[in-house]
């Protein structure tokens, strides 16, 4: 569904719009939360909080400022980071560069998503380690270009194009 | 900036990730309105990253969905649907209540049935165990009976000796096959660390030969033991020996003795 349509639905707060919202985005946002918080129960709590915020503040979303998904993503990151801070985690996450989102796949393959995880893990594992790292930092951890360039010891200008290349690689894999 | 340039720069990826400044965001949005290929590129990036994150996401439980749904939609929604007429309302609620109660009852019954099934299954397996035990006992009894009934078996009564005047035992000795069974039901349980040893004896000259131990004496319910073959034995004796048995009988501990 087009974003404009979904926003309209969400503004009407219909049952259907909730289902659409949940079906389309809950798993993606949950992955971001879980990757930061690494605790299933707490991640579910944060996801609830995030949905409440999206639901209640949808009228403040401004299409001329960015994508709906990006807006939700920012809410998600901020809510998760707030949660982490309130629990005294500080920014300790930022030092754990060894961890990345791919480990979630391994967790999954032990549980319910078996088939999904096996299918997708095949191509995610084909991603270069550098790509996994850069997507981890910029997308999952929400680093700025500056922070990412420091962490990866990569010139600032290269971060953007490197990320572009990695995303292209991912897209070709998905479309194959 | 051309559409090509902005697409190749990697700015659109950061736009979707939410990592641009407000200024940069504005610029991208203007470009996307101007060039459909920029807009399409943005959508493709968005769908790829959603796809990726969805795929690595841990499983989300159905309860989670329900929780969020209730939180956002609450119960108001359910009521507002049925506001038109009060009596249909009541019928609706009544039907719902009946349904819920019925469902509850069914669930309760189901639960009960499950418990009953579990109980029965346990009982069944216990009974099966005792059937197996009984079968074993029966087989043993039949074996003993067969030994006693066998015409080829000579019954040798072994009488109590000095250390145990009240003890007795019987040997069933098949002279053709030389097989020997000992019925030791007249012997007391051996003390810890001791074992009964059976001897086949030749009388002239007196030569005892061990034909086996009555191992696991207490555990053997029928107290009938098969021992080794005794070739040409003229008498049988049973002595109490240290665990593992002895090379020659300890005659002071001779419990029973009997001539063929």
Automatic annotation (TrEMBL), chain A:
Domain RNA polymerase sigma-70 region: 21-87, 124-171
InterPro entries: RNA_pol_sigma-70-like, RNA_pol_sigma-70_dom, RNA_pol_sigma70_r2, RNA_pol_sigma70_r4, RNA_pol_sigma_r2, RNA_pol_sigma_r3/r4-like, WH-like_DNA-bd_sf
Cytoplasm among keywords: no
Pfam families reported for this sequence: Sigma70_r2 (PF04542), Sigma70_r4 (PF04545)
Keywords for the protein's UniProt record, in alphabetical order: DNA-binding, Sigma factor, Transcription, Transcription regulation
Family: Belongs to the sigma-70 factor family. ECF subfamily.
UniProt-recorded name of the protein: Sigma-70 family RNA polymerase sigma factor
Species annotation: Flavobacterium jejuense
Lineage: Bacteria, Pseudomonadati, Bacteroidota, Flavobacteriia, Flavobacteriales
From TrEMBL, chain B:
Residues that span the membrane, as ranges: 90-108
Keyword Transmembrane: yes
Entry-linked Pfam families: RskA_C
Domain annotation Anti-sigma K factor RskA C-terminal: ranges: 95-250
Keywords, comma-separated and alphabetical: Membrane, Transmembrane, Transmembrane helix
PANTHER family on file: ANTI-SIGMA-K FACTOR RSKA
Name of the featured protein: Anti-sigma factor
Organism of provenance: Flavobacterium jejuense
